Amino acid sequence: MAFVSVQFAVFLLAVITVHFLLPQRARWIWLLAASLFFYGLAEPVFLIQILAATCLSFWLAQRIEAAPDKKAKQPIMALGVVALTANLVVFKYTPFLNETLRSILGMANVTYPVPELQWLLPIGISFYTFQLISYLVDVFRGQQKAERQFGVFALYVTFFPKLVAGPIERAKSLLPQIHANPAFNRTDALLGLQLILWGFFKKVFVADRIAPFVNAIYDNPEAANGVQIMFATWLYAFQLYCDFSGYTDIALGIGLIFGYRLTQNFNRPYFATSIQDFWKRWHISLTSWLTDYIYTPLTRQRTFKIKLFNLMLYAMFITFVVSGLWHGAAWTYVVWGALHGGYIVVSLLLQKRWNNFARAMKLNDRPNFYRALKISVTFSLVCFAYIFFRAANMGDALHMVASLGTGWGDFKANMLSVVGDYRNEFFLAMLGIAVVMGAEILQDRLDMRKAIEARPVWMRWSLYYAGTLAVVMLGAFYGSQTDFIYFRF
Fold it and tell me: Which position among 19, 283, 327, 340 bears the catalytic label?
């Protein structure tokens, strides 16, 4: 059931209505039933799978907590992590590994008898797997008590607003809220509705309107030149951001209506002044997860005796390769992750030289210019990596990178060729990007939500109605349904 659909609107309205008609102590049970229905509606067999993973994690966490010491706890925790990881690998990576092995053996002229493997990817498996792994590790570390109510734990795993594409919630954040059985809060509910409306604006007014321009280039990269590829990739940066952050806003907004505060996942990422800063602002719940469960353990290992700084660099690069693999079972995602890891490693190695260069050029004496320069460089590096993230395969990605130097002799004509005859749609897309980025600039100076709440009632509701009309009347529905990009991960 896609978020951008009449079916979901009816489902959500029904869930909210029944939720607040029920006694407060029974509401979490209704939310669990609604979440299981939401997930099972897509593919019932996947409901069995997620419940099996939930049951295993619930049981193992209690065994970990009951074990007498760390030595006894460790194999139980390891069993859970291996089982959950194996489940993810089998369903998400087996076809990729099969084709990779076929290619390697093919280069050696060895016949590979296993046919191409294709099966459905369970929705949200990357997200709920990481969530369950973090829960088991936190119980092992003594940072989280093992949950004793299975229903509460199942709701923590399957809560429908965040189930498909995050945020990746930690047990210490969400479980206490479920136990609290929050009552209706008018302020939170209104804030939730604002977030939902803002999320839908980002998705259907901006992201889905940009999509055809991006698809026209990336679906036929052989016919594109460097200017067209550059422009389409720039557009894709805003498509991806508005799509993913739009989903997150909707998820956070729905959570607030029910009284749950989910994790913020974005903080103006395209205003980052470095790649390190970008990853503190982009997909924050994933960055936090990778830091706590991949990067930090790697830096504390004692197997390899190397300098701490070098160990940090290796750990950083490995962490970003894992991030790439988490995003998708394809070499394009691995390269995308490796590029970001490489960016950070190189920046750390050259940091002193860059600081000396900045002082020599007196860039610190012009802070606004220097900040704008760093933002521009960071955004350009992010966009270059997006070529691999968006390309259909490595062949397309490498061809597009090799073509970046072409087409610059007729820059304007090549730019306009991406727009084609759809100038009105492109104008609306640019208007939408300006609204989103403008709101983020203003957010740096004042709390937009508090500023809106401070306005008179007639002004606030006029703004809400105008936003709703913009989504309904000017949304880029194009007669078809467009899923959120991160639904594939």
Answer: 327
